[in-house]
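Deviations from the work plan: none for this task. Representative record:
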Amino acid sequence: MKIALLVTGRTEWHGLATALRCLFPEHHFYTVPTEQEAASYPDQFPCSGFTSTQLTEAHEGAPPESAQELVERAAQEALGDRRARAADLVMVLDDLELANAHQPARVVRVFRRAVECHLAGQQGARERTQQALRQRVSFHLIVPMIEAWFFGDPGALAKAGVPPGKPSPALVMADPEVFETDDAAYAAATEASCPCWMSKGRDKKRRPKWLGDLPRKNHPKAYLQWLCIDGDDRSCTTYDEVDAGKRALAELNWAVILNEPRLRFHYLRALLADLSQALGPPITGQIDEHLSQPVATRLARNASPILRNI
Amino acid sequence: MIMAAGKKKSLSQRRPAKAPPVKETERPGEELSDRHLALRVWNFRILEHLEWSPSGVCLLSGPNGAGKSTTLDAFLFLRVLFDRGHEAAFHAVGARFFRRVNVPESEPVVFELDAGNIRWRLRFPMSSAGIKDTYGEELYHNGQLVLRAAMFEQVWNLGAERLPLDDIRCCAKVLWDRGDAKWMKPFADAVGAIRVYDSCGLNQVQRSDPIEPRQYYLHGSGANLWSVLANWKSAPTLSKGRFEWVMSAARKAFPDLIATIEFDGGFPIIFPPGAAGPESGLPPERAADGLLTGLLHLTAIAGARPGSIVAFDEIENQLHPHAIRSLLSSMRARAEEEHLTIVVTTHSPVVMNNFRDEPEKVFVLDRSEPGRAIPISMTDLHSEEWLAQAKLGTLYERLAFGSPPIPV
């Protein structure tokens, strides 16, 4: 089968197809947007998520444009075109982000509303689009962001650039999707910990995430950047999405991630269960759908699904 | 520098031909359908093989260097060639590097233009510096060859007649000027009605030059904008309300910038809405570039004869999205009333979104299939269902069509 992965970050764009191919090797995974489109945006990722700011009740009536764009792209992949066969499955993946960590159900409702708005705007193509979305498209959350997955696999952290000899990251909960670190050194770190930040005039564009206005203890990427602090003043961190992030994700040890019972990974399991339903079981790991998160699992679908899992 | 090798006599020795009076036909219906043009081009600059028959309001898109401007130049070249001869035509579009690069010199640049049941074919032997010798020309009526001039020869055949080449005029024009080939009228009218407007430099428009009489149609340069508007305004009945049409459309597109234009001693003054008195008016050099651009577009359309092709290169330049949408709306309405074909080229997502309900009117200079004639209709490139999922401008930004080959 042909599976489109519609992602909103460079790490996922570079590494997720390879990672999933390791679990389902007989199937073809590809990422959206295209390589050409991604290359045409040197400074940004062309496909934005809709969860970087806190969603409100108003968004359930009027979804953000970025959510609607995701639906547009998903519909196109699911319908196919003159020169491209329709994808058998389209997985739309967005980070839950810390801004919306307390309200995953709302995020799903907003996306559902985006789908409804999209269908309402279709005229002649409405029925076919509706059918394609319902049969082929799923929406899943990466919680709270892709770097959380690396904390379930020590090998992934090494590939992401955490120096050998660094103490194991200290997580409060075993489940990286409920991310919290009690690393005292991290909690106490100040801008003086980053020679590059200090020497480059505190350029906001270079500011590492752990120095930003966010609860750093809950931010996997921020913690990873801190674990990978560069020793000199070239950059604030050796972790980058394109190389280190890609490597860590593409070479994720699924056996560790999926077979360690303490690593719940509810949302990740919901994604894999959704894939397994169509593709058959993965070659490694146990996908117990009952462990997956209700808001994103196919088990929770109501009588009138608008997508495969919503 | 255009090589004058195409004809024997020097410029100073030529007697200018007496052109027949311009006839304006405004009868709609069958005659206008006869004016519908189909263009085919081979080896003209970047265009290996173009085949296009635009109708209604059409958009031509493609990456930088794809040949959008060159396509409009092909139309312009043929019109000027028919009206004023090949030297004027080469001067209008440039004779250097006329032939497609890497095509052998032995292969001519070929143009074919169909209007109804008439076909006009031209073949130009070109070097990189210009035309090498006399060009070839054929005219067909109902599939029958009417006249023929071979490349490199100094005579042409009109039926049984063998005639020397005219110094300036193409053979088709010579035949038309004789006055006894009435069947050529739809063709002559169609070719003569082609108008191409590129992103006009506004310098000439910003100058307040004295109004010239008897200027009724906008030149390709736009330089006579004020003369045309003044002449229309002074003769509203004779000009069929063209000035008021332009003003009405301009007010919609630029609601805070223009109410009317008055001419003081032959010089234009632009008055905004609510102007309290003469001191509120502005001369062109103080007017917004976008307003001047909009006036040029509207005047070009208003002056187009029924059945004309009017082309605008990069129509969006200097224009706010509201102005773009408003001007396009006015142009569409006018095109429908006057049976105009309007061709716009653009890189603007705003312009492209304006064609969302008519993807079949969007054409793409797409080279992904070698050997295939371009442009290709959007609905041949993508299914309508697929296109319906997003705005055309959004798809253009996502490189879904008309994109350069980006290395990855």
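Chain A touches chain B through 26 residues (CB under 8 Å).
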